[in-house]
């Protein structure tokens, strides 16, 4: 292709004829350049993602203290986890968080997105407002809520002055701590799904809603039969992403309750952290991390299999 | 047609409903803002007025001094510099590495391209929690524990950026580049001179999301930083407050507000781009 350095002189038909001849050497050249362009990412991902993923599985088969002798254990770390009442409790706590958080998050964000509809003025302001805590540092958000939930904090004093009753000690009570963590997390996280849903609702053609209305469909029927089928891909996407991230919950319980009272709000990731960096048993920590990974993959797979029943990509 | 009432009363009804709807929405927005307002309000109160018998928006004075005091109470100056350094360098690495690989996947033809791309996307599935144990061991082996390297490099190669920019590069008409190539312009020059300048909006989105995720990251710094006073980042510094006897809540809130400020500004200023970028990729957040 080097000879074609005066393209302005070439007639309009020439490039079309020249292209096939030039494609083959270009392809070979491309291969060399591809290596160059891919090198940083490929090296980085191999060293910092692929290798550690496999290594994590390896470490989980050892008694692997941070310092000192390592001994091969086989699957002992995994059987230890199965029989550890703390780990079982931690899995249940995480499941409880997910079961409370995901549906509430979707209902709140979808409800608000539908309510705000495409016609309301100042919609962009709401989008930005709700999105703020999604982006601000999680630790800062949680700190604010720690003060909010504190005896003598805003919720407590508010209830005292308006209803004359003390608020429960949210973070110190085993029945209130988890709902408190869920409430905080909803406040922090729903803005993302709100954005996804309101963008999806914008795509529903107004004309179809109007013709359904003319045919006598009420608001609920219009939502069920016109809007819903069109937004199911977004709902699928949002629930899947929210499910994945909610299994990884860490900073909220870590800062609000330190997993307490007792271990009633300790989550799987907190367990990984504690095993690894409090008790310095890396093998067990790694095994717990892999259990989490398998749970997440399983749930995602179930979501993908289940979507055929209710997600419509063809409308 | 099922008109309820004449068109006239229908319109009135609609206006009333929309009025009520607006009032309720503003109430929801205020409720949502409550925690943020509370944080700012507390950050400006004297220490002994944080806990009052009734909710008070203002204390007996507006103490801006709290913001300065937060920096002397704990080394927040150091935390902010560390966080800024880690986030800026990390973002740079992410943008350079992902724009290069994105270009390869979008524009260069090589054997195994599709399979390699699927492998790239596959790495997105691995949660950070699986990686932290071997990553810590890797950092130990490299002698990087408690270093800036360890804060930056392990998370600076993500398929997310590659995916986002590839999606953008695919929308650039191929003719633009072909013309340049006919001119004797190789892939490197065409990448630098044509694609990168065109991709500025997508790069901006990636920059902001990456910066924000470095800025807010907590679990990894918590693990890898031993000398918090020296290598600590802002979230670590904030978390240091917990469990201390007699937490200085007003200073604490001042520091939290300062930690939120850069991200709030970015979101408000770049709202349109961020929303688009987020929806194009369907990722972001944490």
TrEMBL record, chain A:
Residues 15-24 have a biased composition (Low complexity). One of its GO terms (cellular component) is plasma membrane. It comes from the Bacteria. Residues 1-24 are annotated as: Disordered. Residues 91-303 form the ABC transmembrane type-1 domain. It is a multi-pass membrane protein. CDD domains: TM_PBP2 (cd06261). It holds the Pfam family BPD_transp_1. The chain crosses the membrane at residues 33-62, 90-116, 128-149, 176-201, 234-256, 276-302. It is found in: Cell membrane. GO terms for biological process: transmembrane transport. Keywords: Cell membrane, Membrane, Transmembrane, Transmembrane helix, Transport. Belongs to the binding-protein-dependent transport system permease family. This is Sugar ABC transporter permease.
Automatic annotation (TrEMBL), chain B:
Its main location: membrane. Belongs to the binding-protein-dependent transport system permease family. GO terms for biological process: transmembrane transport. It is found in: Cell membrane. The keyword Secreted does not apply. It is a multi-pass membrane protein. SUPFAM superfamilies: MetI-like. Keywords: Cell membrane, Membrane, Transmembrane, Transmembrane helix, Transport. This is Carbohydrate ABC transporter permease. The chain crosses the membrane at residues 20-40, 79-104, 116-136, 148-165, 202-229, 249-270. Gene3D superfamilies: MetI-like (1.10.3720.10). Pfam families: BPD_transp_1. It comes from Kribbella turkmenica. PROSITE patterns: ABC_TM1. The keyword Transport applies. GO terms for cellular component: plasma membrane. Residues 80-270 form the ABC transmembrane type-1 domain.
């Amino acid at each position: 292709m080097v000879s074609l350095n005066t393209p302005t002189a070439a007639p309009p038909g020439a490039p079309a004829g020249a292209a096939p001849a030039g494609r083959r050497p270009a392809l070979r050249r491309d291969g060399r350049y591809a290596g160059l362009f891919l090198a940083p990412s490929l090296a980085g991902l191999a060293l910092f993602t692929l290798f550690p993923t496999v290594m994590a599985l390896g470490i989980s088969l050892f008694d692997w203290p941070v310092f000192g002798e390592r001994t091969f254990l086989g699957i002992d770390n995994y059987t230890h986890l199965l029989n550890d009442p703390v780990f079982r409790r931690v899995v249940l706590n995480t499941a409880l968080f997910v079961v409370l958080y995901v549906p509430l998050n979707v209902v709140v964000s979808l409800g608000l997105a539908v309510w705000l509809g495409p016609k309301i003025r100042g919609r962009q302001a709401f989008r930005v407002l709700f999105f703020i805590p999604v982006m601000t540092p999680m630790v800062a958000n949680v700190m604010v809520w720690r003060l909010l939930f504190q005896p003598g904090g805003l919720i407590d004093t508010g209830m005292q002055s308006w209803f004359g009753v003390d608020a429960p000690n949210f973070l110190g009570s085993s029945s209130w701590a988890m709902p408190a963590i869920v409430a905080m997390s909803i406040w922090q996280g729903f803005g993302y799904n709100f954005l996804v849903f309101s963008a999806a609702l914008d795509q529903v053609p107004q004309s179809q809603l109007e013709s359904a209305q003319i045919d006598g469909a009420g608001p609920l029927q219009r939502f069920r039969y016109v809007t819903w089928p069109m937004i199911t891909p977004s709902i699928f996407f949002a629930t899947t992403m929210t499910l994945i991230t909610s299994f990884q919950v860490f900073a909220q319980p870590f800062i609000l309750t330190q997993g307490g009272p007792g271990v009633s709000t300790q989550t799987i990731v907190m367990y990984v952290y504690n095993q690894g960096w409090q008790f310095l048993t890396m093998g067990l920590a790694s095994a717990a991390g892999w259990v989490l990974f398998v749970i997440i993959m399983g749930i995602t797979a179930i979501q993908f299999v289940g979507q055929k029943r209710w997600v419509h990509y063809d409308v | 047609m099922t008109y309820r009432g004449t068109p006239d009363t229908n319109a009135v009804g609609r206006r009333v409903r929309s009025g009520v709807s607006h009032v309720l929405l503003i109430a929801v927005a205020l409720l949502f803002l409550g925690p943020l307002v509370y944080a700012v309000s507390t950050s400006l109160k004297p220490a002994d007025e944080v806990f009052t018998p009734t909710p008070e928006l203002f204390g007996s004075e507006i103490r801006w001094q709290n913001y300065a005091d937060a920096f002397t109470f704990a080394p927040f100056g150091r935390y902010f510099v560390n966080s800024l350094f880690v986030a800026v360098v990390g973002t740079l690495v992410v943008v350079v590495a992902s724009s290069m690989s994105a270009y390869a996947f979008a524009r260069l033809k090589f054997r195994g391209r599709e399979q390699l791309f699927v492998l790239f996307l596959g790495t997105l599935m691995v949660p950070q929690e699986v990686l932290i144990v071997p990553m810590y061991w890797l950092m130990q082996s490299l002698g990087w524990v408690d270093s800036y390297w360890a804060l930056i490099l392990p998370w600076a190669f993500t398929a997310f950026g590659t995916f986002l920019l590839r999606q953008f590069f695919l929308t650039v008409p191929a003719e633009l580049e072909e013309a340049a190539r006919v001119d004797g312009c190789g892939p490197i020059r065409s990448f630098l001179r044509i694609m990168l300048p065109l991709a500025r909006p997508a790069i901006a989105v990636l920059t902001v999301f990456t910066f924000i995720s470095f800025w807010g990251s907590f679990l990894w710094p918590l693990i890898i930083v031993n000398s918090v006073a020296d290598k600590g980042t802002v979230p670590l510094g904030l978390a240091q407050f917990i469990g201390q006897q007699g937490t200085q809540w007003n200073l604490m809130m001042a520091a939290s507000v300062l930690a939120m400020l850069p991200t709030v500004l970015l979101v408000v200023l770049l709202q349109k781009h961020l929303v688009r970028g987020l929806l194009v990729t369907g990722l972001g957040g944490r």
